[in-house]
Every structure is written in structure tokens, then in C-alpha cells.
Amino acid sequence: MPKKSKSRKRTVRIEVRKSGVHGHGVYAVQSIPKATRIIEYTGQRVSWEAAPNDENDPHTFNFGLDNGEVINPEIGGNDARWINHSCDPNCEAVEEDDRIFIDALRDIQAGEELFYDYALEIDEPITEESKKRFACYCHSPYCRGTMLDVS
Ligand SMILES: C[S@@+](CC[C@H](N)C(=O)[O-])C[C@H]1O[C@@H](n2cnc3c(N)ncnc32)[C@H](O)[C@@H]1O
Ligand SMILES: [Zn+2]
Description:
The chain starts with 13 loop residues before the first strand and ends in an 18-residue tail after the last helix. A three-stranded antiparallel beta sheet has the order 3-9-8, with no helix packed on it. The chain has a three-stranded antiparallel beta sheet with strand order 4-6-5, with no helix packed on it. It has one helix at residues 128-133, and strands spanning 14-18, 24-28, 37-40, 44-47, 63-64, 69-72, 84-85, 91-96, 99-104, 115-116. It has a domain at 14-41 and 77-133: Beta Complex (Beta-clip-like). The protein is mainly beta. The structure holds S-adenosylmethionine and zinc ion.
């Protein structure tokens, strides 16, 4: 019998539509309080070697885990795969038990696009050329100009 419980998690209402930053993006349909767990980044877990990857193409859906695996949302993925990067994000990607969750960093209003900081890592030194290859178009006043992790 289905269990009716007060602790049942509510689904946060979000939608995928065209973004002003890049391609498709994900938008809040409702207001989302700070620290809300919005969605899990799901997909097939594969090794880096098995993940679809073109080093010269900055467009990627791969999400690297601390254990060395990669989540490939092209198989078993959900709407989280469409969330774009911002250098001044309203969400953060949190890794827990080899799973990735997207949580609200602050209160988010209905209609806002959701973003987290990709902080991309590459297997080569970060140069002006690689920063440009992974250029960021988030339009934030704090934009660092690249989706790469330059910290
Ligand atoms: C997981 S996809 C996000 C969905 C993407 N907008 C689409 O329609 O396919 C990640 C890719 O979107 C692009 N992207 C996301 N945020 C960006 C940003 N702030 N500036 C430039 N490109 C971005 C990059 O090509 C990145 O590799
Ligand atoms: Zn930016």
C-alpha cells in the first residue's frame, strides 16, 4: 500500500526552455527557498575513457565525480542536464555518496533561470586560449570570462 507520510519529498517545479545564455536552460516555475534540493543530475556512470568527449568541443554534458567516474546524462539523464553555467550562480552542485544534486544557493524567484558554477577542469594547463575555448557568456558583472576553474 502506498505510504502517506509527512516526510514525503515535494518535487520542485522547473521547466526547460530556450536560454538567453546558451541553447536550452532550466527555469524555476515556482519560488524556490535557499538550500532547497532541486534536482539530481542523473545519467549513466562511466569511466572518463568511456565518456563521450571531444577535447576541442566546449559543449559537454559530462559531470565528473570525485571517484573518477563521469555521469553521462545522454543515457538515463533528466532535466538537470540543461542547467547552464554562471560565474554568479543561484544554485550549487553538491556531491554526496557519488551522486550529484543541484541545491539552491539563495532564494530563487519563479521565472529565474537556474545556474551553477561548472568550474570545469581540463587535462592541460589553463591558458588564455583554453579560457577562450571555454568562454562564458553568463553576462554577470562577476563573470570571469570562462567556465574553467581558474581558482
Ligand atoms: C550541460 S550543457 C547545458 C545545456 C546547454 N545550454 C544546451 O542547450 O545544450 C553544457 C554546455 O552548455 C554551454 N553553456 C552552458 N553555460 C554556458 C555559459 N555560461 N556560457 C557559454 N556556454 C555555456 C556549454 O557549451 C556547456 O558545455
Ligand atoms: Zn561567466
